[in-house]
Amino acid sequence: MTNLLxxxxxxxxxxxxxxxxxxxxxxxxxxxxxxxxxMRVGPNRVGLGKFRLWGLMQPLADGLKMIFKEDIxxxxxxxxxxxxxxxLSLIPAxxxxxxxxxxxxxxLFNHTIELHVTRMNVGLLYVLxxxxxxxxxxxxxxxxxxxxxxxxxxxxxxxxxxSYELALGLSIVSVLLYTGTLxxxxxxxxQGGFHGLAWNIFHYPLLxxxxxxxxxxxxxxxxRTPFDLPEADSELVAGYHTEYSSMxxxxxxxxxxxxxxxxxxxxxxxxxxxxxxxxVGRLPYLGPVYFTVKVLALIFMAxxxxxxxxxxxxxxxxxxxxxxxxxxxxxxxxxxxxxxLFMR
Amino acid sequence: MWQEKVLxxxxxxxxxxxxxxxxxxxxxxxxxxxxxxxxxxxSALYLTVHAQFIAAVQIVVYAGAIMVLFIFVIMLLxxxxxxxxxxxxxxxxxxxxxxxxxxIAEMFYVLRPIRLTTLPIQPGNAExxxxxxxxxxxxxxxxxxxxxxxxxxxxxxxxxxAMVLARREGD
Amino acid sequence: xxxxxxxxxxxxxxxxxxxxxxxLSRFAKNRRPTREKLMPYECGVEPVGTARERQSVKFYxxxxxxxxxxxxxxxxxxxxxxxxxxxxxxxYRHLKYVFYGEMMVFMVVLFVGLVYVWRKGILEWNR
Amino acid sequence: MVPLSWYLxxxxxLFTIGAVGVFIKRNAITIFLCIELMLNAVNLTLVSxxxxxxxxxxxxxxxxxxxxxxxxxxxxxxxxISIFRNRESLNVDEVDSLKL
Lengths: 344, 171, 127, 100
Fold this sequence. Notes:
Number of helices of chain C: 3
Oligomer: heterotetramer
Number of strands of chain D: 0
Mean pLDDT of chain D: 87
Distance between the termini of chain C: 51 Å
CATH topology of the domain at 26-87 in chain D: Helix Hairpins
Largest interface: A-C, 82 and 67 residues
């Protein structure tokens, strides 16, 4: 029992450290990709002393800069909620990752270590639950700032998030029809056949449509362009975090990037075989590598979309979510279940 | 298993404290946030009796949807703070205390026979155990089919009714 | 239910992290508050009116439609999880058309709801 | 192991707090929140009894109760909105046109 607890504590802390580092470097990646798409160089100065290291120290410098920024709490703000809101959006974002498997099992110091923190019978519902709780941080940030832009941004953002949460949930239901379980570990294990290439998306071609719906909905859920209406800077200044500065602003940014990483990981797990890949049966250390590569590819795709597609208008956004994605995912469920009914 | 008792007490205290906070707060927004605290700790308590699926649904439906609706309404209407209650009969307050004591004594009396009943051991095949998604799904769509189908009509009625009530003509 | 203990663990650790970050920014001694700085930001102009105004009821209508369709999604989850098992297992196979049919009835009823919301123009924002 | 009586006692306490809230609060939304609290207290009873008897029925009741709570919240809040529109107040003592 104590051993198990110790293992969990270590795994949790390691995962959190990896996630925080990953967030820092995804921001750098975003700036590099943006620069690359716009034919610029991007951050390339910050290094160690004389060595520039392609700007690899940029996130560290950014972090230090943000710590030393002035922490402003507006006079008319609702003090308690104003401080609570960024925490409420960061904590659920950090909590999702414990159900995602990132490898099979490896042996370390004569211990067999499963490469996931925990598995639960309702794993995917746990993820959905945390996604739906994430709305509070944004709503309360908008409300407590006592600023018109914040309030409008918070309301718009939460309405957008709940609208696309529906499409997200319903597209996951189509996947569940094929997997027959909510346990993410089982979902990944089932995709291990055919030299580790029996990924759901190859195995069940109908899931390509589902993946497109899922991906669009998760972009909207994480407030990325073309769905970044909540912080549409030309209309709403900075949306719900207009009044936030210093580390509280960092917390919102961290939550946003964490959500992007989580969404990509879930997409990898559900559609692209998780950590499965060629030779992973013989070399279990390849599991986390495959997983990271797939997640990074999906994150890159999100960035590519961000710098290619212009922003939606709010009425277009709501119309797209409710009148296209929602009926499309319902139709998908009907088609998938009919297919399963006649599967032998 | 003292750990389970400690967990129960922790979550029970959180649930009761936030439930009391609903009454103590004057602003409806804070009351709603305290209710979310109660809902989350109840969800943890559901886990201690192996109701995993219901625990997750509790967060998805209650904390993630119903309370969002409440908070939206509070924010949209900009609801004023609660006024203090005007007591019409002053003496009743003191009558309340012996009655409360009576009720608590009665509760202890009723609960006495089951004070030692503990949770049955779960069967070895954990997938088929009560509270998993599989057990909920098979029972809901066979034995409890009628309530399930009636629910869909109920939801439709609520949708139409609420739309008609909340929209103004020409809105 | 031992498997759910890590949820508690990560909740505690994540809350601790959030608290540390907030406290960290509190202790960075660089606060020089001025009246202008602590005013609500309105692009540098003196704020007009209050932010606590009544908002459009549209947001409520969308949240309500979300709530009711979210229930539908939650009902779909256990059905989707058991459906394949029902089709393929010996014990439940004779029920497979029942399982299929009852969910189709459920979804048709809710689709009527979606059509109602659609026709009533709740989902239109540009009017 | 935690005995069943603890769960039932907790549920009774929460129900009482909710009932007291309905009586002492004036704000329609807060009263509504207290009703939700009472529903949740009953849900705790159903779930714990279902766990202790090993019968999934109680959990299905809770599932249905949650649906009813959602429908109730949607319609109830719509009523509250239309009351607020007409009277500019949510104090339940002022909404008494039906009283003789």
